[in-house]
Design brief:
Blueprint (H helix, E strand, L loop, with lengths): L1 H10 L9 E5 L4 E2 L2 E2 L2 H9 L2 E3 L12 E3 L4 E3 L2 E6 H4 L7
Antiparallel strand pairs: 1-7, 2-3, 4-7, 5-6
């Protein structure tokens, strides 16, 4: 994880007026704005980024569903700069 975060930091200039949006399958569990990876959490904190899961509301329980197997999980996440996070009004 630290290698991936390092590559992103090497290619993106993180400043107060930078708009950053990262999205996809992070293969990490998130709870209360934290992941299960200290490296990823440090990357988010150091670059003033915010996980957007809370913008989906209480009714969202998963982003992937395999109906025939009866399984689901929350595997897709967005992480954005604080400026963008403060302006997100709705997520579906």
């Amino acid at each position: 994880m630290s290698d991936i975060c390092g590559q992103i930091e090497a290619n993106v200039s993180f400043t107060a007026d930078t708009f950053v949006m990262l999205g996809g399958d992070f293969n990490l569990e998130f709870a209360d704005g934290k992941s299960c990876s200290e490296d990823f959490d440090s990357f988010i904190t150091d670059n003033d980024l915010v996980i957007c899961d809370s913008k989906f509301g209480d009714n969202a329980k998963y982003t992937y569903c395999h109906e025939s197997r009866g399984c689901s999980s929350w595997i897709d996440h967005f992480v954005v700069s604080r400026y963008l996070f403060d302006r997100i009004t709705n997520a579906k």
